[in-house]
Amino acid sequence: MNCQDRFGSILFKAEKCNLEEIDAAKVCSTYKKGEVVFQEGTYPFGIYCVNTGKIKLSHSGDDGREQIVRLAKPGDIIGYKALLSAERYTASAIALDDSSVCFIPKDLFMSILQKDANLSFEMMRIIASELRKAETKITHLAQKPVRERLAETLLFIKETYGVEQDGTTLNVRLSREEIANLVGTATESAIRLLSEFKKDGLIELQGKKIRLLNQEEITRTANLQD
Amino acid sequence: MNCQDRFGSILFKAEKCNLEEIDAAKVCSTYKKGEVVFQEGTYPFGIYCVNTGKIKLSHSGDDGREQIVRLAKPGDIIGYKALLSAERYTASAIALDDSSVCFIPKDLFMSILQKDANLSFEMMRIIASELRKAETKITHLAQKPVRERLAETLLFIKETYGVEQDGTTLNVRLSREEIANLVGTATESAIRLLSEFKKDGLIELQGKKIRLLNQEEITRTANLQD
DNA sequence: CCCGGCTCTTGACTCTTGTCATTTTTCCCC
DNA sequence: GGGGAAAAATGACAAGAGTCAAGAGCCGGG
């Protein structure tokens, strides 16, 4: 699966001529696990599209603690908010795995967006759906206890990155700190609750591997109803 | 200032012909304080644009507590997320004051959006900026204590609805519960902290009137740095 | 004008969650 | 393979924040 294949599930919505333009101008690079694709506080020069691998997007809070606001997977576009608002990045993008990411220069992307109603329309839908999710997250952060949010986060990770062949092991390695930063809690709290989940037979832990043993019960613990 | 004047600061970006079409199809209605413009869980038939007045958008959480995710003012568009994703509303819109709101039918709006790159582009920018704010809110909810969030919320309300002629009284009447739902905390906590702020000379309280006496200090309390 | 039902306020208490400190484990890199 | 640093786990403690309960104040409707 090469760069072109994967590039921009969304961007395929672009008109024919634009697609070729994009193809010509894009640059694909690879990032090793832990490498920074773009850094909070800097100005954007274009947008990125995840080709292969996994990217986390995180805000760093005042005290240096980070909050992961999004997990990106192949086909996802990242870095569009800063570009669209012509401001600095408010989040950093960091590879969770070795990843391949394509870059499209700002000018090209913006000019196409302004011409191509189809593409703008699709982008709009995507962003609207992100906003929807963000608002739900706000509500849950404000109202749900950490335990429920952790369970929800485990399900979210599964939704996003899927599982390995065994059908239960989450297909991504996250540190406890990263999990905590997804949930929005202290690392120790995340660790403690993971241990509880394990004790209760909901999950199995082997290092950074997490197996969801009893998804029913995890769902119940997450207490979702919207 | 009539409906037409105010209608859709954004929609003015629409092409000329579309503007007339919109003008012809739109319907303006008034809502008394407390009345519902649209209800979480129902399907959208179009979008709304706030003409005059103030509208709150709130998710209701599992336990019935509500989380206010947005405050809309004249010129703002509401109800677009559900429309764009063709799903039910995830939030309810309720008038905080007597308000006038215009409605544009779904089909018209969607067809214009798909044809008019300019409009899609503008919508996209707006939604992207909302998303930006939402993500910052997520980080703050996860990392900041209630005291700081309350201070931040007071400043946010001022930003959104401004102040009265005296230059210090917030130009909106919110119940303590609504303030709490904006901050993401219990009503009692919000009340207690407001009392503290008052004791510390940051604000003055007279019923639902809130005067920001010492904005410097409120900003410091909010502890903003992004 | 007064009653009844709100919202607001305050106090007391509980408990979830965060912080700090320490130990144990893991995992690189030499 | 071993040493060392980072990550994970666990315990003890503190404190922020939520809940419950009771009283005060305010407001609209009869």
Question: Could you please describe the fold and organization of this structure?
Answer:
The structure is a homodimer of 226-residue chains. Chain A is of the alpha+beta class and 226 residues long. The first copy, chain A, has nine helices and ten strands. In chain A, the strands form three sheets. The first copy, chain A, has a four-stranded antiparallel sheet with strand order 1-8-3-6. A four-stranded antiparallel sheet of chain A has the order 2-7-4-5. The radius of gyration of chain A is 18 Å and the shape is elongated. Chain A starts with a helix and ends with a helix. The structure holds a DNA duplex (30 and 30 nucleotides).
Task: Please write out the topology.
Two copies of one chain form a homodimer.
Chain A: H1 3-6, H2 16-25, E1 27-31, E2 36-38, E3 46-52, E4 55-60, E5 66-72, E6 77-78, H3 80-85, E7 92-95, E8 99-105, H4 106-115, H5 117-143, H6 146-161, H7 176-183, H8 187-199, E9 203-206, E10 209-212, H9 215-222
Antiparallel strand pairs in A: 1-8, 2-7, 3-6, 3-8, 4-5, 4-7, 9-10
Helix pairs in contact in A: 6-7, 6-9, 7-8
Chain A binds a DNA duplex (30 and 30 nucleotides) through α8.
Brief overview:
The structure is a homodimer of 226-residue chains. By secondary structure, chain A is α+β, with helices and mostly antiparallel strands.
